[in-house]
């Protein structure tokens, strides 16, 4: 079992293997926590959304310092994206989260509005090690009382993987359905505006206005 960070030393005592990771300074960890407080987690982003799209959408509310997309290693590339967006202040981050909760926030024509919530430490793969943190790892034999618990956790993880894949499938079907509905609505509105332009161009609207004594503007 490997540590996520650089290991300082490995000590084996009474069957326990202790991993000591390179500690970060208190100042470094405090600065990281401040960064987390001013970062917003966005999901349900269209696959066509890029960093420039996010910056353009959020620049009207706050100054965007950094955009980091979270890679999707398990699902198809057509799934909605997720991103961590660092802003210039924690106050602005809270305001954007509140705005996304109360109003529809669309990006790049996605049928479903973008979701936003405050970022948490576990979302960052480059997070520093908490000062004085110590990890202990030990091998479990089948006769160990905790072996059954570990096996159940393993099976639960596999079940969650299957459930997530199924939810992704339903999500894609729903997004496709919403996209078709949005396309049909757009076509209907386009036909209406085209008809209005036509009757205005051939003066049909003006003739009807004179017949029914209704004022109509030339523009």
TrEMBL record:
PROSITE patterns: RRM. InterPro entries: Epigenetic_reg_gene_expr (IPR053316), Nucleotide-bd_a/b_plait_sf (IPR012677), RBD_domain_sf (IPR035979), RRM_dom (IPR000504). Residues 38-142 form the RRM domain. One of its GO terms (molecular function) is RNA binding. Pfam families: RRM_1. Keywords: RNA-binding. Gene3D superfamilies: 3.30.70.330. It comes from the Eukaryota. PANTHER family: RNA-BINDING (RRM/RBD/RNP MOTIFS) FAMILY PROTEIN (PTHR36309), RNA-BINDING (RRM_RBD_RNP MOTIFS) FAMILY PROTEIN (PTHR36309:SF1). This is RRM domain-containing protein. It comes from Psophocarpus tetragonolobus.
